[in-house]
Amino acid sequence: MNTKQLFIQTIGCQMNVYDSEQIVSLLKPLWYVSTDALDRADLVVLNTCAIREKAVQKAFSFLGRLAELKRKNPRMIIAVGGCVAQQEGRSMLKRAPILDIVFGTQAVGRLPGMIRRVEARRCRIIDVAVTDGVEEFDIPDADREREGASRFVTIMQGCDNFCTYCVVPYVRGREFSRRPGRILCEIEALVDAGVREVTLLGQNVNSYGKKEGLIPFEALLARINAVDGLHRIRFTTSHPKDLSPGLMSAFADLEKLCAHIHLPVQSGSNAVLNRMHRRYTREDYLEKVRRLRELRPDIAVTSDIIVGFPGESRADFEATLDLVREIEFDGLFAFMYSDRPNAPAARFPDKVTEGEKKERLQELLTLQEQYT
Ligand code: 5AD
Ligand code: SF4
Question: How far, in Å, from the CA of 307 to the mean position of ligand 1?
């Protein structure tokens, strides 16, 4: 059997990067090998992100490019997955006639079957089913052959927090944590294959296992810390409300845990945090960062901030600038608020104008430049 060429385009967060890595492994038994040459691909997989409008536009503009290629090579199979696929579902097939497969965020494990069906008899397939407990797909042996000293490991999926600006709970489904045994097995296998650093992934790793009554996140970290041959552990992303004293202590106790935490604050104004449904105050956040620095003086703290959330006044924004001055983040990602389908804030009154959002973003970035 001849090999076939697979081109994967990944937009979005590390979750998507991880899913794309899994897809490469899962498709090896179907004789697909990765290529960088889009025009020679037999199969193109586009893994999409819906977190902000810009990311969605990126996905559709890539599909536009593919339309041209598919005219030249009608046998090319095109599959789109990830958060936009999940959000748009069937309407995606209508909007992009070139698509053969639309697969949702929980359908990655079923993709090989879908591709087999399309190869056998050209048909169009959609699978955007979401369930409460996500079935785990087996990590194929081929996965272990992949090179590189650093790898992602998903420990949980979905999100139950429902921050009012965020689309994630609607496109990634309910929170679900993998069993510690499965996670450790995967990490041990990676270490056997030469991996030295793992980054644990989840929308909110701090609440790992709570819902399922598994061990707490800091206990999982301690068990991973004990894996021989592993040198470094990182994790992302954290929610300030779930950053427990036990987890903070892990930064002092576990020598393999990197001295970095990405802790999105989103706003420095309590009124805005409240409307964002973040369930912590500015004071809580400052206190947690102070404690982290006390436990691990070399810790790097990075964050995300949204400017121009509905109803954000000049005074609210000043409070954010103030917090940035007080904390002196080691790195900051700043975004202009944008309405997302389903997210409640899309229906909130007192929208901030685009011009004002742009100005606030610039002001924030200029301030942060002094610290980064
Ligand atoms: N508008 C702007 N930024 C957003 N983020 C999430 N949703 C939105 C939105 N609707 C930002 C948050 C989050 C990061 C990944 O993206 O800051 O932490
Ligand atoms: Fe984007 Fe969120 Fe989906 Fe990641 S989980 S790809 S950030 S929408």
Answer: 10
- Residue 79's DSSP bridge partners are 45, 101
pLDDT at 135: 56
CA of 293 to the centre of ligand 1 (A): 26
Q: What is the CA radius of gyration of the chain?
A: 22
* DSSP classification of residue 19: H
Regarding the beta carbon of 83 and ligand 2, being less than 6 Å apart is answered yes
Pair 40, 33: CB distance under 8 Å: no
For residue 276, report the distance from its CA to the centre of ligand 1, in Å.
Answer: 11
Query: Counting atoms of ligand 1 from 1, which one is nearest the CA of 13?
Result: 15
Dihedral sign for Cα atoms in the order 359, 364, 365, 366: positive
Give the DSSP letter of residue 257.
Answer: B
Q: How far is the CA of 166 from the centre of ligand 1 (A)?
A: 7
pTM of model > 0.70: yes
Task: Note the residue count of the chain.
Answer: 372
59 touches ligand 2 (CB under 6 Å):
no
Q: Is 85 in the pocket of ligand 2 (CB under 6 A)?
A: no
Minimal-distance CA residue to ligand 2 atom 4:
13
| pLDDT tens digits for range 290-324 | 999 999 999 999 999 999 999 999 999 999 999 99
Tokens describing residue 158? 């979905």
Helices (H) and strands (E) in the chain, counts: 13, 14
Give the span between the Cα atoms of 124 and 211, in whole angstroms: 37
Helix ranges restricted to H, the chain: 14-27, 53-72, 82-88, 90-95, 111-120, 168-172, 180-192, 217-225, 245-253, 270-276, 282-295, 314-327, 354-369
β 232-236/197-201 pair status: parallel
pLDDT tens digits along 140-196: 444 555 567 899 999 999 999 999 999 999 999 999 999 999 999 999 999 999 999
Output the CA 52–ligand 1 centroid distance in Å: 7
